[in-house]
Amino acid sequence: MPRRMRSFDGSMEQLPIFLDIRDKRVIVVGGGTAAARKADHALRAGARVTVLADSVNDDFKEWADHPNLTVLAETPRSEHFAGAILAYGAAEDREIDLAVHKLAREAGTLVNIVDSPDYCDFVTPAVVDRDPLLIAISSSGTSPILARIIKARLETMLPSAYGRLARFVGELRGRVMEAITDGPARRRFWERIIDGPVADLVLSGSTEKAEATLNSELEAARREAARPTVGEVYLVGAGPGDPDLLTFRALRLIQRADVVLYDRLISDCLLNLVRRDAERIYVGKMNRDHTMPQEDISELMVRLAQEGKRVLRLKGGDPFIFGRGGEEIERLALSEIPFQVVPGITAATGASAYAGIPLTHRDHAQACVFVTGHGKNGRLDLDWKTLLQPAQTVVVYMGLSMLPELTREFLARGADPDLPVAVVENATRRSQRVVTGTVTDIADKVAEAGIEAPALTILGTVVTLRARLNWYHPSSAASDEGDCLHAMPFDPVETSEFA
């Protein structure tokens, strides 16, 4: 199956993991508040902690009698680090902390020197604790204050009862795994449980009712497993490029899909939101270069859904505006495949907003027309009479290759030679560029600037407003992926959750 190759620039500076340090040795050097915090975290995780310090402050009193805590008034030596899994340098004395770094490295022990990112094999994240549910937030050591602020916000969003829910689910995992042997079916079961009435009952403290309801759901799932299942297709508009423009519903379905069919306008930023184990299939199309014909895409969606899979058809912009979404769901309806359609911000509204060009304005345009610039046999077949009406804006999709022909036709049919025109490349992305001109010179300006697809053309006097209303100023050196987590696709469950 054709796939678009994805490139990663290694921008994830650290690998987030959770270590099991129960009954393993952890060394903390220092007796102040910073050292006490490190010792606290390690003790709560079940480690055997040795603190090396001439003296310790009152922050250590809480664990003075802890059986896993040993305090030694000794200078750090190599034998202290032998067999230790982690070491913290928190002496707040540069010479001592650098010695700790050297000794730990020699012993093969992972080391963290407080407030010294260049001397850290790992960082201690800010933690939202809903035991056994833990959420770790890290800025890779660049801004601990930012991580702390995000932690505070998450604390207000997640009730303490989420820990109860995590324990409830954990206690029943074995039974569910025995009852539902198919991995995808088990995932769907847990999604219904955790995002439905059972979870609500657990969170409210009605654990017995929750277990009874879960048992009923489990019995229903057993019966369903005996019947052939038909999947579902989610036709989702991903917007013009900026991931922040996704709707909540789009995000929810993106994270639910088993298979993703995506086009060339879908960035790695968006694909990173897809569940880690979901299959990704590239079906992108360019002018005269179709990876997969439209008919084959529609047939593929039908086949995958008939196999019981939840299929995400992820399209740039809005699927019903020059996105062939109507053709695709016609084929699904013919095969009686369930589907949902999620609208997205279409390229016209995204490009105009980020370019500072209102599509309508009381002083300029009381109407707006969207047309496609794809020419048949190299010729444009448009309703020119409609397009040349006064007091309106014309937006041309997919018309970059036909721009010289488009402007010639406008002029030949009586358009004002000074009619303002804007061409927006990579609208809403950090690499967005906008070229403005008139219907007379825009084609030459676009060629000179090296504008490439995807690009959208806006014609009308509203373009003159850009000089005052242009608010979006991305860095010329910015990457479209600058705000993305390249190497960390969304994974709604732990790797072993459905093994």
Automatic annotation (TrEMBL):
Chain spans, region Precorrin-2 dehydrogenase / sirohydrochlorin ferrochelatase: 1-214
A Pfam family hit: TP_methylase
Sequence ranges assigned to domain Siroheme synthase central in this UniProt record: 130-156
Protein name (record): Siroheme synthase
Catalysed reaction, written as an equation: uroporphyrinogen III + 2 S-adenosyl-L-methionine = precorrin-2 + 2 S-adenosyl-L-homocysteine + H(+); siroheme + 2 H(+) = sirohydrochlorin + Fe(2+); precorrin-2 + NAD(+) = sirohydrochlorin + NADH + 2 H(+)
Protein's organism: Rhodobium gokarnense
GO MF, one annotated term: uroporphyrin-III C-methyltransferase activity
Active site: 263 (proton acceptor), 285 (proton donor)
Its EC number(s): 2.1.1.107, 1.3.1.76, 4.99.1.4
Domain of life: Bacteria
Keyword match Transmembrane: no
